[in-house]
Amino acid sequence: MRRPVTAITRQVSASINNCELSFHARQPIDVAKAMAQHKAYEDCLAGLGVRIVSLPAEPELPDAVFVEDPAVVVDEVAVISIMGAPSRRPEASSLAEALSHYRPIKFLVEPATLDGGDVLRAGRFIFVGLSQRTNQEGIAQLSDMFRVYDYQVQSVEVRGCLHLKSACSYIGNDTVLVNRSLIDAERFRGFELVDVPDEEPAAANALLVQDVVIIPASFPKTRALLEQRGFRVQTIDLSELQKAEAGVTCTSLIFNHEAMAAEDRGV
Ligand code: GLY
């Protein structure tokens, strides 16, 4: 049976053109179009039965729409991170407040840095990218926090892209969509690997919601490949936020809605 799912999202900041960029050259972002595309993304999730909790924009924080990065949420707990980009760290407080209605909250502490975009969960396995944004200490602290809930945390070195989930995504059925040039895919031994087409190297970021894989409309070959393999796929137009180095996972924080019983939380 499907579990009810909630997505926290946040409205696009009018200052999005001042976003952080690490591997992309800056291009002008059409803010009104970005806002309309983000609304269509929320509608896509809602159409799949996801309950949307849409937070107001943070006008002074250009990257605040990327709510995936300040937190890592599992059934038992929400961990508030210290993001790798100092300009983004003030995004965390309003997100922590929103998450406190659903989960007990824990905090990483310095010198840890970690972006949620570096965290890929597949059942009880959690892979964390060692990247420009996430350091060894961040991975070690997350591992210590999650071990008590019986998650196995493993690190994966990321090269040439922003986050682990720029390089690979879990798409269900024990399968990982991957661009092997950006990570050591051996780390995913035991999973079925689907390679993104050579023509679409940036297509490895995919969002699994229920049994549907959401990808950007700009990757038609990846769509065809996934459909050939029996996956249900939906596409969305992400053209504006892609210029801010976004993928489909970045703009929501999705978790099972049912509150954990207090005794299950160990409180
Ligand atoms: N622009 C998204 C990020 O760099 O975090």
Helices and strands, in order, run as EHEEEHEEEHEHEEEEEHEHE
Give the strand tally: 15
Please, what is the average pLDDT?
95
Portion in beta strands:
15-25%
Main sheet record: 3 strands, mixed
Shape: globular
Report helical residue fraction. 10-25%
Total helical segments: 6
Radius of gyration: 17 Å
Low-pLDDT segments, ≥5 res = 261-267
Ligands in the structure?
glycine
The class by helix and strand makeup works out as alpha/beta
Describe the structure.
By secondary structure, this protein is of the alpha/beta class. 20% of the residues lie in helices and 24% in strands. It is built from 6 helices and 15 strands. The longest helix is centred in the first third of the chain and has 17 residues, at 31-47. Residues 19-20, 22, 63, 66, 85, 244-245 line the site of glycine.
Helix and strand layout, with pairings?
Blueprint: E1 5-10, H1 31-47, E2 51-55, E3 71-73, E4 78-80, H2 92-99, E5 105-107, E6 119-122, E7 125-130, H3 136-147, E8 152-157, H4 164-167, E9 168-170, E10 175-178, E11 192-195, E12 207-209, E13 212-216, H5 220-228, E14 232-236, H6 239-242, E15 253-256
Parallel strand pairs: 1-2, 4-5, 7-8, 10-11, 13-14
Antiparallel strand pairs: 1-15, 3-4, 6-7, 9-10, 12-13
The structure holds glycine.
Brief write-up:
By secondary structure, this protein is an alpha/beta fold.
Task: Please describe the structure with a list of short key phrases separated by commas or semicolons.
267 residues; alpha/beta; 3-stranded mixed beta sheet; 15 strands; globular; disordered C terminus; binds glycine
